[in-house]
Amino acid sequence: MLIWLVELADHIQIFNLFRYITFRTGAALFTSLMIVFLFGPRIIDSLRIRQGKGQPIRADGPQTHFKKAGTPTMGGLMILAGIVGSSLLWADLSNVYVVCTLLVTLGFGAIGFYDDYLKVTKQSHLGLSGKARLGIEFFIAAIAVYFMMKTSLASTTHGPTFGTSVTFPFFKDLVLNLGYFFVLFGGFVIVGAGNAVNLTDGLDGLAIVPVMIASAAFGLIAYLAGNAVFANYLQIHFVPGTGELAVILGAVIGAGLGFLWFNAPPAAIFMGDTGSLALGGLIGSIAVATKHEIVMVIIGGLFVIETLSVIIQVFWFKRTGKRVFLMAPIHHHFEKKGWTESQVVIRFWIVAVILAMVGLSTLKLR
Known about the structure:
By secondary structure, this protein is mainly alpha-helical. It has one domain. 64% of the residues lie in helices and 3% in strands. It has 13 helices and two strands. It has helices at residues 21-51, 76-90, 96-122, 130-153, 182-200, 208-225, 228-234, 245-263, 272-289, 293-299, 301-320, 330-336, 341-361; strands at 165-168, 171-177. The protein has a two-stranded antiparallel sheet. α2 runs antiparallel to α8 (245-263). The longest helix has 31 residues, at 21-51. The radius of gyration is 20 Å and the shape is globular.
């Protein structure tokens, strides 16, 4: 919204700053942080009053979790307020990638909110049915992917089929054209990312910090992929317009820092599906927009590990009646093994940092 101030740059030179994505990214980070800091306590108090018993605690979970009973959920509302409010101020709202990413973020956030609402009111882990949730998520994601694909197809930078193609790390010329099946592929990536972050959100601070780490990594990728000079130097695919997504990711980092202030152990509020689905969908959308879907599997490797642990656990239990892990997702397995919550969280943060660095290394290894 504030980008229109660039028009005043001819008269007042300081407004020339609004041309630069780097400046607006930093401003978005600070703005979202302030939004969460200012409105966070009111949101927490309001949710605590309305929810009463707070988020239900799993009866089969680690015993240490029962002391968290009564903690309110839906803290994702704080995060979404920071991200959306800041993005509306600092991002270019005429950019299709920005609009599509915000569409997915708000859409997934709404699904998560309704799921959280059902769980809190019923005091049960059975919220919105899995099939209905996945179906709605995929519908929203497919719409966003379609418009991002059409925007990319309109660019002649890499030829007429680039918008429907998948690129691969380490190989600068390896491109797989999926045609309009790319909508299905992109939708799967976004839905998978949303639910992977959702599965990771099980301990205080466990999900939000890896999300910020992934956001920082993809903020750099978006900026480089959207800049013709840097993209050519690194021999990555130039995707015009995606640099603007760095502004949204700056807002994610700011909102994440603000939320962590309240979510640090002992958490005053949980993110809930409201936040985890929205954040995962956001990262997945940006991976699709920047043509770094495969790299997302590396950068977001922690989320992939958490998801695979659940898939493996369910598959093997149905097949043999035995469990591979003491409890899934895998962070609960380590708790059952005797790790303290802080040990699990901090060690998983370290893993997230390492994987992000490995993912970023693919930008030069071509």
